[in-house]
């Protein structure tokens, strides 16, 4: 079989890895428009903040036997001849084609938008850092997840930053109004000036102009106004396209020889913009095209959004906007604005259907497990927010955590799997990551993985003693 993958990002690179792990004989060719080796796009905000280097966020090198063509864009798909055509005039035949083209940044249609830098790729990150070296201030346009991360990263370098958002509160897709307010106050304490409910009408050389006529100074303007799936290649080839490339439970498009995964794919009406669903989809497609599991199906993902800005801890999952007056739901909520803490549980039929955890949240792992599994809640729900209360669920420590508990959401790695690879000789973070891929997604599980490794080492020392 000749497999061609269009896209060498986190979805495409993972697919090639998954296929090669199942079948050593399939001929795999991967096309990547970027000239760089695949890297973890999720962790670009860490590069912007200076807490990680570009080398540290690279994905592991692809396996032997994978032909990777960097800096070569695919320009057309000939479904009749089963070939893809590239910008350099070449043709590559395929038996199976997988589209992993990802998304592109949304650039607002305002005068001067070309003066700003959209924050999406490693090259964008380098351009921002180069501009930041001489700029006296920055304006970030867009208060979604990426905009918050970008603003915090630049502020962490000591630069005055203003974060602008059109909606009434930050991250309105994931957070309710109160959580958005607490997040804004937490960012303000870290040096980010937040302005919500404002509309940008022009980007000038000296800053950003608002609909009110006010001009906010800033030589560096970063755009984080959302992304849209890159579907033009699929549309031009006559594939069914909605917001993304429409796929079924096999991740197959309207052409049975062509699949789509990651941010360009639309499954059951949903386009997922997070890495965990993309990697789940890659595993399903690898199972199907290699025959490793012909019954494999993708049934959708239960999303957990994690903010990766330094000094700001946030997890949001499920139906976060429901309130007590929504009917048939119970909401447990706690706010301590002075400490930047907001905790909210949304419960229906004794099951966790949504949660927001901002600030210190010792039970985030437990709540993520309960949400992901959809099982009944244990004991008093208040104990899930305050583990020190009597009858509360124990905090997320290795002692109380069952082996079935999922530690790394992005790669579906359980405590038991970490224990098994530790017992097989993986005794540090790098070895465990290499064996399980834990910590290589959004990176938010890093402290939990380190805690389990440390606990296992302590247990071994006690036995020896």
TrEMBL record:
GO molecular function terms attached to this record: iron-sulfur cluster binding; metal ion binding; oxidoreductase activity
Cofactor requirement: [4Fe-4S] cluster; FAD; siroheme
Pfam family, one: Rubredoxin_C
Keywords assigned: FAD, Flavoprotein, Heme, Iron, Iron-sulfur, Metal-binding, Oxidoreductase
Domain NADH-rubredoxin oxidoreductase C-terminal, first and last residues per copy: 304-364
Domain BFD-like [2Fe-2S]-binding positions: 407-453
Metabolic or biological pathway, per its Swiss-Prot or TrEMBL entry: Nitrogen metabolism; nitrate reduction (assimilation)
Positions of the FAD/NAD(P)-binding domain: 2-282
Protein family per UniProt: Belongs to the nitrite and sulfite reductase 4Fe-4S domain family.
Name this protein carries in UniProt: FAD/NAD(P)-binding oxidoreductase
